Amino acid sequence: MASDLDFSPPEVPEPTFLENLLRYGLFLGAIFQLICVLAIIVPVPKSYEEAEPSEPRSAEVTRKPKTTVPSVNKRPKKEPKKKR
């Protein structure tokens, strides 16, 4: 009766090239996501040059005030009629 039981490991086929590519691609994607999450959580101190530039850049310092453009969706308010 003991000879009837087969305790040998089952035969597993070797993974194909596409399965390996998918496996390692998923690993790389997970590592990339961890790096992105850590970049958000861990603050990076700014260097002295970035914190206080010696020469202000004219393009960045001079900004034009934004003008509000009425949107297409909104209709202008109707003025109330004058009573006679």
Automatic annotation (TrEMBL):
Pfam families: UPF0239. GO terms for cellular component: membrane. Residues 74-84 have a biased composition (Basic residues). It is found in: Membrane. Its main location: membrane. The keyword Chloroplast does not apply. This is Protein MANBAL isoform X2. It comes from Dipodomys ordii. The lineage of its organism: Eukaryota, Metazoa, Chordata, Craniata, Vertebrata.
